[in-house]
Write a structure and sequence with these properties.
The protein has an eight-stranded mixed β-sheet, with helices on both faces. Strands 11-10-9-12-13 form a five-stranded mixed β-sheet, with helices on both faces. It is α/β, with parallel strands linked by helices and 382 residues long. The longest helix is centred in the C-terminal third of the chain and has 25 residues, at 293-317. The protein has two domains: 11-156 and 362-374, Nucleotidyltransferase, domain 5; 196-354, Nucleotidyltransferase, domain 5 (2-Layer Sandwich). The chain has 14 helices and 13 strands. Helix 6 packs across helix 14. A hairpin with a 2-residue loop joins strand 4 (52-57) and strand 5.
């Protein structure tokens, strides 16, 4: 994304990144010279008894054990600590939304029409959208005059060609909005911003609790492993990834009679957790893989599926110039990166890089750009 209009003074922008039980936030000063992080923090385990909260400005880190009944309470604490530290009141707020639904495919300034589409998008990502909506609505109530910007994980993938985004399903089903939307777009945008120059053919492996592999040509998405929802693609922490559709039919005929039962099985009980029967945390699985065959199988499957997906994306691009690993696993699990790359020599020469996923910074950049026309000299109150 670009910077604020030339000559415009830097403005404080708050980036909000919601999980189903967490809220990350970062306050950035955004201007022509770039972005400066003023403070960041996170509320974790929202809605649970042992919730926690941390905040950092520079080298100063504050930690507290605080129970948050909901995301609105977590947002209130975030605003409060920004005030306690006498940081500037945000002139605009950016919100990460995993999908924007059928109609909203680009980053947007929030309007009533956009809000209506976001509410409808909950069907595409029921684990992600309700909490993000709760925070967005709470922010509107708290600072009703502050521009709210919707930053979409699906926006990066709007460049995918029809042969990659259309499913081989009847037209009546496709008319319901069933197609490949792709996710992790904010992470991918942040990776592109770190590459100067950007090679022609890039494959990005975003590996974390949610994982996806994306083929990028000339900075535009060509194909990606996630599909209609973030459940598709490679196996993940607790998500199954791609399945034979017949499995769904089989399960429906054998005791799984509701959508909620299937969703819990596919999104919360599968993946690394389901295979290992221990945990979805790669760090813990690596510690016991030599002694526990289930942990070893889960990790081998994970690496195998990612290796296959990288090869498939190389096929979509006609080769790879650069393979980027990002995300919590991609950045920190060197043993798994090496295991994934074994067997990819047939692709030909390519460079491997490890880059941080800077989703919150990207939210701030997008927010500053879209809200710049609404920035004024006024001081917004929290």
């Amino acid at each position: 994304m670009g910077r604020l209009n030339r000559g415009r003074a830097a403005q404080p922008v708050l980036a909000l990144n919601c999980g189903s039980s967490s809220l990350k936030f970062g306050l950035y000063l955004c201007g022509d010279a770039g972005e400066e992080l003023l403070g960041e923090g996170e509320a974790e385990e929202i809605g649970r008894q042992h919730a926690s909260f941390w905040f950092r400005t520079g080298e100063d880190r504050h930690q507290e054990q605080t129970a948050f009944p909901d995301h609105e309470a977590a947002l209130s604490r975030a605003f409060a600590i920004l005030g306690e530290r006498k940081l500037p009141v945000p002139a605009a707020i950016g919100h990460r939304f995993v999908p924007g639904g059928r109609q909203i495919r680009e980053h947007q300034v929030l309007t009533p029409a956009v809000m209506e589409q976001l509410r409808a998008a909950a069907a595409f990502a029921p684990l992600h959208v309700p909490s993000a909506l709760a925070v967005l609505e709470a922010a509107q109530r708290k600072v009703p005059k502050t521009p709210q910007i919707v930053c979409l994980d699906t926006a990066f993938h709007r460049t995918m060609p029809d042969l990659a985004k259309v499913y081989a399903l009847p037209a009546g089903i496709r008319s319901l909005g069933v197609g490949r939307y792709g996710f992790h777009g904010l992470s991918l945008e942040s990776i592109m911003a770190q590459l100067q120059p950007v090679p022609e053919r890039v494959v990005v492996a975003h590996l974390g609790n949610g994982s996806s592999i994306t083929a990028i040509r000339n900075s535009a998405s060509v194909d990606t492993t996630m599909g209609l929802t973030p459940t598709g693609g490679v196996m993940m922490g607790s998500r199954c990834g791609d399945l034979d559709p017949g499995i769904v039919v089989y399960l429906m005929r054998n005791g799984f009679t509701t959508a909620d039962e299937l969703e819990i099985a596919f999104n919360r009980e599968s993946g690394l957790l389901g295979v290992s029967e221990i945990t979805s945390d790669v760090r813990d699985l690596l510690k016991v893989r030599k002694e526990d065959a289930r942990a070893d199988l889960a990790l081998r499957m994970f690496c195998y599926q990612i290796r296959k997906a990288i090869a498939a994306m190389a096929g979509a691009l006609g080769g790879i110039d650069l393979l980027v690993f990002t995300g919590g696993i991609g950045e920190h699990a060197g043993e798994l990166r090496d295991e994934i790359c074994q067997g990819l020599d047939f692709i030909g020469p390519y460079t491997v890089r490890v880059l941080p996923s800077r989703e919150d910074l990207q939210i701030a950049r997008i927010t500053a750009t879209l809200a710049s026309s609404q920035f004024g000299e006024r001081s917004l109150q929290s």
